[in-house]
Amino acid sequence: MMHRPGHRRLAPVTDTTRAELEEIRASIDNIDAALIHVLAERFKYTKRVGRLKAEHDLPPADPEREERQITRLKALALEADLDPAFAEKFLNFIIAEVIRHHEDIRS
Amino acid sequence: MMHRPGHRRLAPVTDTTRAELEEIRASIDNIDAALIHVLAERFKYTKRVGRLKAEHDLPPADPEREERQITRLKALALEADLDPAFAEKFLNFIIAEVIRHHEDIRS
Which of A32, A56, A72, A81 has the fewest CB atoms within 10 Å, i.e. the most exposed one? Predict the structure, then answer.
């Protein structure tokens, strides 16, 4: 077993550690499946928005709504003990994909 | 009302359109609240993984597990009618944040 020199005492990697790691990872895998399905549902809705916007020649992006969404999600993140800065990055990541879809619908 | 010249006939923006847009947006807002809470739960688990890894001097990143996660999530995305390329981008986005947390735990 290799230990790095340093001030920290390192615990050996036992079967218990490995079992604990595997158990947590199984939960993470369940959560990821939930996230994928919830995201799929979200994009179904945003595609409907995209079609409505294209039909009515409304602009693909809506900065005022995005501002309200960011404020709300940061507050929800704080309550849920999630980094609000991450919640904002996450929404921006999703919105970038949504705008790409809206532009596809229009083109 | 402004109409762009072109081959597409654009429908006017009526109260019905606005009401439909608002209804879809209310669903999107519910979905986003769900996503924030599920993500908060995911990071609780990955922080536990990070502490275990730091205690046992295991490397923060695990490319083999990531490969398996990406393959699985792309398959789940296909089933859910979500772009598999987006599912991969999404997991990479989350993992980048997780690795940042793991490095924080270690430092």
Answer: A81
Residue where the block lists tokens 């609240």: B33
The complex scores an ipTM of 0.87
- CB-CB under 8 Å, A82 with B57: no
- Judge whether B55 and A10 are in contact, CB under 8 Å: yes
**Is residue A15, in this structure, part of any structural domain at all?**
no
> Do the beta carbons of residue B11 and residue A58 sit within 8 Å?
no
CA distance A63 to chain B (A): 14
Q: Which pLDDT band, with edges at 50, 70 and 90, does A7 fall under?
A: low
Give the position of tokens 């295991």: B58
Contacts of B20 in chain A (CB under 8 A): 52
Number of folded domains that form chain A: 1
Show the domain range for B60. Answer: 24-106
Dihedral, A65, A70, A76, A77 alpha carbons, nearest 10: 160
Task: Compute the Cα dihedral for B1, B7, B9, B13 and give only its sign.
Answer: negative
Residue of chain B minimizing CA distance to A79 = B37
